[in-house]
Amino acid sequence: MYLPRFKKVDLASSLKDKLRYIIQWPSGAVSNRRWLAPFNAVKKKWSAAFRKFKQIYMNTTTSKIISPASAGMHLPSRLVFAGLFLWVALFTIGLVGYSGSKIAYALFSLTTGAMLVTGFRQRSSYGYLFLTVFLWLGVWLKATIHTILSYPFVEPVGAFVGGSEAWDDVLYVATVASLGVMVGKVFFDLLTSRITLRRQAITPAFPQWYPQSRKWLWIALLFAAAAAISINLKYGIHLIGLAPRTVLMWPLNAIVAWLLNIGLATGIAVLLWWDIALKKKLTIPVYAIIAEALISSVSILSRAVYVFHAIPQLWALYRLKHISLGWSRAKVALLVVLFVAFLVVSISAVTTFRNYLYQSSAYSSTAYQVAVTQSEVVVGAIAEVQLKIKNSSPAESQALKIRLRELEAEELKLKLRVAKEKAKSIEAMKSGSAQSRILLNEFGYQVTGGFPALILQLSVDRWIGLEGLMAVQSYPEKNMGLFWRALSENPAAGKADTYQVVSNSIYLKSDGTKFRFATLPGAAAFLYYSDSLIVVMLGMVFFSLAVLVVELLIIILTANPILCSLYGAVMANNVVQFGVSPRQTLPYFFMLACGILLVWLVQARFFTQILCMLKIVRPEQPSDD
User: Fold this and answer.
1) Which of 92, 201, 273, 493 is 20 to 30 A from 286 via CA?
2) CA atoms within 13 A on the CB side of 217
3) Do 154 and 458 meet the contact criterion of CB atoms below 8 Å apart?
4) CA pair distance 537, 105, nearest whole angstrom
5) What does the radius of gyration of the chain's CA atoms come to, in whole angstroms?
């Protein structure tokens, strides 16, 4: 706070006036004195730095770096207050139930919460937003929900057995990782604020040849989707968790995998942006987003693909609704209904195919497996009650006998259910179209009974982060040597990587010639191989900067914010899942780079000139104006 300004005064000999003279110099009243010149220079420098800081972080500047997300990420106030209320409630319950240091949990919660807030508050990157959301879901939400409900973790955690000190160590590493993400964002903002490239209002644009070729490009994209799906279905080129059944002539396998992983979604994002520039109706292109996400998800057996293809593009459209959508509430409601319906179909279909293809022994339906598991639980409960009856008083035994009869009745019902489900499987196998009958029965069960339980599990336990930190924390041989070995390893097909051993993964015993399963550590856990919080901090700064720089390059090359959102989510997801044979991910990133360069190429002016020279398209006629 600045001191009050005073008029210039005479330098009297009284102590009061001298003190008054001394305390008023920061306000500039006597700034013409030579001996104050160095102090004034420092003051001006710090004032300029503070103004720059306010311009960057308080969104007051009018000249910034080109940004794919310049429209702002402000959520409705009601949603913000609801989220804040839910966070406070979960934080309070988690703090009470946490067995370790309350300070460690509070620091962990506040740091990860601040990271999430920076993701929504900043206006320069979709990828940074997705990175903060994915990390927050994978560490804070998962840790808090498991603390409150005390149920087992889905992913393996190595030799981690809990304890106050062990949990505190895990939370401290997660806290440092969250700080690293935020520091990376600060570095990026400070570095890009000095670049002469300034923000321009992002206006939709299209190549000159697109209006003539629009219909044929959409048809070609549809044909490419049908071809890629058919080839993958017949030859098993790219199925999550399974080794390729067929190796086609180079580079056909890579092209099919690229199309289903990101290529089709890239094509839709590009054509959709060009359609916005042409001011075309966007109903069919927007529905194409969720349709492509559905078919790609089912085709490669990945439930996550539906979310990572559909949500980023729809989020970008929502952010750019002032230039893209002019939809009524009825159309938006229909889109939401279709999105949810396709999500149900995607998760149910992928789970159905996985349950069928991932079983190495004789097939058994999920309904049969659930009935058998429930029956085994009831049998164990019956044995426990019978033991209590033998050691209880006559008064207590009466209540226990009533409970025993209830359990025996439930056991009888479950036995009948097990027999019924087994008979269904046998009957399906006897029919002429056994495979179709099995899949239809399984899909029906997943839609009606399996989906609700599965969506609750996936909403918390699907996100990567916490289990990796727990497994690495318990590993006794953490050091820089382990970190460098894990970074450079390239295990042969069928061989386990470092983290499968560290986490004691169940996939260590799987058939590596048939299956391609792996437990994922996440970036923070991988960096913690070094047993150094400094390495964790610097590594997360690097990953945060990588996401931000890649997205900046994409917007410079393509000027397409929808594409930035799609690839930002892909980059953020790769950071969150980082750690299994990093060298083997280089070809995937090369394919991503090729996709962006291809978009840049077809949008370039010289590409239009080449098409005109080849007489593939007609040159644009100059206007009379």
Assistant:
1) 201
2) 18
3) no
4) 19
5) 30
Which of 64-78, 286-300, 385-399 is predicted with the least confidence, judged by mean pLDDT?
Answer: 64-78
Helix (H) / strand (E) element for 574: namely: helix 561-576
3-class state of residue 239 by DSSP = strand
What gap in Å lies between CA 197 and CA 192, rounded to an integer? 9
Please tell me whether residue 515 adopts helix, strand or coil conformation.
Answer: strand
CA-to-CA dists, residue 491 to 368, 373, 514, 529, 587, angstroms: 37, 36, 16, 18, 15
d(CA 96, CA 102): 8
Q: Are 529 and 580 spatial neighbours (Cβ–Cβ below 8 Å)?
A: no
Is the model's pLDDT at 11 over the cut of 50? no
Report the alpha-carbon angle 605-610-612, nearest 5: 95
Q: Is the pTM of this model over 0.90?
A: no
Dist. CA 528–CA 547, nearest whole Å: 20
CB < 8 Å & 24+ apart, contacts of 514-520: 514/242, 514/243, 514/360, 515/241, 515/242, 515/243, 515/358, 516/240, 516/241, 516/242, 516/243, 517/241, 518/580, 519/155, 519/156, 519/580, 520/155, 520/464, 520/468, 520/577, 520/579, 520/580
* CB atoms near residue 258 (< 10 Å): 22
Which residues, 6 or more positions from 332, have their beta carbon under 8 angstroms from its beta carbon?
A: none
325 burial class (0-12, 13-18, 19+ CB within 10 angstroms)?
middle
Give the other-Cβ count within 10 Å of 142's Cβ: 22
> For residues 520 and 580, is the Cβ–Cβ distance under 8 A?
yes
pLDDT band at 159 (very low <50, low <70, confident <90, very high): confident
pLDDT confidence of residue 75: 64
Of 51, 162, 65, 168, the C-alpha closest to 108 is: 168
Q: Which regions of 520-605 does DSSP assign to beta strands (E)?
A: none
d(CA 474, CA 503): 9
The whole-angstrom separation of Cα 337 and Cα 335 is 5
526 token code pair: 């991988």
Nearest-5° Cα angle at 177, 159 to 163: 30
Contacts of residue 44, Cβ cutoff 8 Å, sequence gap at least 6? none
Two tokens at 553? 């390059």
379: its two tokens: 């049998």
Residues 578-619 have pLDDT tens digits of 988 888 788 888 889 999 999 999 998 888 888 888 877 776
Three-class secondary structure assignment of 352-391 = HHHHHHCCCCCCCCHHHHHHHHHHHHHHHHHHHHHHHHHC
Instruction: For residue 269, give the 3-state DSSP assignment.
Output: helix
* Cβ contact 473:528 at 8 Å: yes
Instruction: Pick the range with the lowest mean pLDDT from 171-180, 187-196, 270-279, 450-459.
Output: 450-459
What is the distance between the alpha carbons of residues 507 and 550, in angstroms, rounded to a whole number?
A: 33
Residue labelled with tokens 């009888």: 412
Which runs of consecutive H residues, i.e. helices, occur in 447-519? 451-461, 466-474, 480-488, 498-502
Instruction: Round to whole Å and give the CA distance between 132 and 179.
Output: 11
What is the enclosing helix (H) or strand (E) of 573?
Answer: helix 561-576
Q: Which of 183-197, 306-320, 524-538 has the lowest mean pLDDT?
A: 183-197
Residue 124 CB coordination number (10 Å): 25
Phi, psi of 510 (to 5 degrees): -80, 160
243 conformational bin, left if phi > 0, alpha if psi -120 to 50, beta if neither: beta
